[in-house]
Amino acid sequence: MKTVSRRGSLAQKIKLSTIAEALGVSTATVSLALRDSPLVADSTRDRIKEYAREIGYIYNRRAASLRTSRSGIVGVVVHDIMNPFFAEILRSIETELDRSRQTFLLSNHYDKLDKQRTFLDTLLQLGADGVIMSPAIGTPAEDIRMVEENGLPAVLIARSVPGADVPVFRGDDTFGTALATNHLISLGHRRIVMIGGTDQTSTGRDRYQGYLNAMQNAGLEVRPDWRIPGPRTKQAGFEASQQFLAHKDKPTAAVCWNDLVAIGLMNGIYRAGLVPGVDISVTGYDDLEEAAIATPALTTVWNGQREVGRRAARTLLDRLNGIEVHGGQELIRPELHVRQSTGKPVER
Amino acid sequence: MKTVSRRGSLAQKIKLSTIAEALGVSTATVSLALRDSPLVADSTRDRIKEYAREIGYIYNRRAASLRTSRSGIVGVVVHDIMNPFFAEILRSIETELDRSRQTFLLSNHYDKLDKQRTFLDTLLQLGADGVIMSPAIGTPAEDIRMVEENGLPAVLIARSVPGADVPVFRGDDTFGTALATNHLISLGHRRIVMIGGTDQTSTGRDRYQGYLNAMQNAGLEVRPDWRIPGPRTKQAGFEASQQFLAHKDKPTAAVCWNDLVAIGLMNGIYRAGLVPGVDISVTGYDDLEEAAIATPALTTVWNGQREVGRRAARTLLDRLNGIEVHGGQELIRPELHVRQSTGKPVER
DNA sequence: CTGAAAGCGCTTACAG
DNA sequence: CTGAAAGCGCTTACAG
Lengths: 348, 348
Description:
Largest sheet of chain A: 6 strands, parallel
CATH architecture of the largest domain in chain A: 3-Layer(aba) Sandwich
Oligomer: homodimer
Radius of gyration of chain A: 26 Å
Mean pLDDT of chain A: 91
Strand order of the largest sheet of chain A: 3-2-4-5-6-13
């Protein structure tokens, strides 16, 4: 157990000029050679690259970026990267950005505007090339405009910001929730509750609207207390189960905000001695990998996470490469995946 | 739907000298004022800061960092940030780093050495101040030494790298797995299987060793085919359930690599018409938030994720601040949390 | 308490 | 195909 010091003993910093002097060429030539410029003779290039590798040269991106004003950094900020819904989006963004050798700088904002602002500020200070964001609740269009005006192009995912004229990629939530609700109605359910979510995001409003549309089109009554709003976590779903089961109207089915809420709810239903999919039907939303192996396997709505991430990343890369891109929303069409958590209603 | 161009129309870049000229002071004074140096008169400082805010000045960290060779960036690389085990560690790292106003740059390596190397390289190029890593399987000590020698101090979490003389924070896996195994033995189980994990990581070897120790200390037989190695996911646990249930020796309990595997296994047990915690006892590892709301609530080993993250971050920050720090491993002592997924054995 | 000047390590016209 | 020189936007001795 010996003590370690802050810095290793680096003999002395190796830089372009170190190589240039050693090989008797100019720094311009070294710079061009290392970036495979056709302006440099093959033999010169090979000599330079070989020598650079040999002495362990490390390219200084700060210096380069200061000069070129391109950093190779793309920021990504979402509510919570540990949420599997965002996780799946992030994976496809990562794949796309890796391909273009962009470094991606990730952050959570936990729906806190000031955390989001701090992050955007960091990106501006680092001279990031662009940002992909799922905006925090209450993000004003002005915040988006500010970063854009400072040379940081933005692309939105999952949520839109009214008044912000940038590309947005998200699922068609109204349509998707209607799919789930209609599925329950077609099984014979009449008393259907919606659990989770909030009116404060575009997603929240849209999903509730989809539920309302489906209920009303079927001529079913919608009671205000049939909506149990709340966080979008397993824990919240678990806790909502008590409120749900104690409901005097004995609802027979629940349309859940997402798979996490649905899985939590199903756990709560089990704890109460009932069987989800038999005694109570439950639908999720997102079709996380986990949905298929839940018990019972969860009927849910596939929300195109991969697609959202892929298209958002590509659109941003296009903007970086000077390709013109359309502002405005692009909706991915969701699909219903029927599994075992839904069935015909039984009277309790 | 109008087209958006790559860059907003930024009138012209505002920099220190813009402010200096406007206010008739030097850039040195502006620089010092913005960083609250006591060298600057209060009134001068206030004038400068006020004006900077007014015209929307954005600090250029690349330029500053080029000059000072400190970037304010700390890299964090783990197998998979979406894995809830790492997620909990990351959250506490985030909290610590936020407090010190360090930007944290996150990456997955998915246990691919070259992805890890690319990331470390990026950190070196960006002049990152330090790195916290859960090293990919097979990471040679040489890789750690290289980054350290290039001025990037490293701290390891969750896994150690033999021969690398840097601080390591992880749970005491041998002890923890022995806790779980002993718990099952004390309930009366004799045929206990270990599911998930691999011999290729220090964690994998240690956890298996803990299981072996407990079994042997109790004088119980350990058969080679009582180990079902595999990935550390729900999916893997789910799939292992078939192999487990088909076992000719009819094991009555399973020590799982982690909570994810345990939850997947329990789902598989349900699917087979058996009840975990009654017909088969199952233990997890990590005590994720999810463990407490699983069905049945999972008996598991708390692994000190928060603690690991917090101490790793603090140790790195100490190194950055020139405080001497001890290399070598620090083990967090795990605790057994008994819930409903374990009980006395029943003969099948 | 403030200013003039050098320099961090690159890249990019420009000249040859 | 290669080199000399300017400049990206900061910070830091140094001088006053």
